[in-house]
């Protein structure tokens, strides 16, 4: 069986380097390309040396089209503008696009959905098994409990994270909204300051913390009268995101074009 050829976007970043090492160490996959933005000081460097796994003979490039023409998939934890462009290239090359970028706007997502007509795109705010199990539990609990239980989502990440709430927090919010049969955009409360008045029934609140080197903590709170249910996931090592991304790429190879998520990959979608 031929190894799945994968390109890593954002190859010089923390997640990119971890993905390169994970691909190097994992059976059934191999690195075929490594991408960075034009002007990056990493351009031309050997991706393996930069990731700490030895020379691989794959130099970091700023040419996504060339890299993706010789690949079966691309793993992308970059920024929204870059991810939109990469989704278009994935559609042209008819390859798998594992998309872990967060902070995407609705306009960005429209471009992703359009690209998914021609490419297998697996998009998730979090690639870990634990978080996706948590999302499935959140949807079920939200469906089971009455609207008398208020839903609040608390997340904390390292000080360098640039978007808030996190993509994972929003994913959990979407799961809660789906369980309640409502639209998150119409019920999300992302900021409270000053005299806000009483909490509105049906709101899904978000609270964001930033500091230190926290990889990612997420808690979904269902607060009722006289009792509270808390569902929590704490990520302690970024390698779990890399492992999930590789699993998604292997799962997506050979699938029909479309927009999928990690619940599809893990078989957690309710029929």
Helical content, roughly? 25-40%
N-to-C order of helices and strands:
EHEHHEHEHEHEHHEEEEHEH
Uncertain ranges: none
Structural class designation: alpha/beta
Task: Give the oligomer, counting copies of the same chain as homo and different chains as hetero.
Answer: single chain
Largest sheet: 6 strands, parallel
What is the tally of helical segments? 10
Proportion in β-strands: 15-25%
Spatial separation of the terminal alpha carbons: 32 Å
Mean pLDDT: 94
Count of β-strands:
11
Principal-axis shape equals elongated
Spatial ordering of strands, largest sheet: 2-1-3-4-5-11
* Rg (C-alpha, Å): 19 Å
Offer a concise description of the structure.
With 271 residues, the protein is an alpha/beta fold. The chain is built from 10 helices and 11 strands.
Q: What features would you describe in this structure?
A:
- The protein is built from ten helices and eleven strands.
- The protein is an alpha/beta fold.
- The chain has a six-stranded parallel sheet with strand order 2-1-3-4-5-11, sandwiched between helices.
- A hairpin with a 2-residue loop joins β9 (216-224) and β10.
- The chain is elongated and about 60 Å long.
- The model has no long low-confidence stretch (mean pLDDT 94).
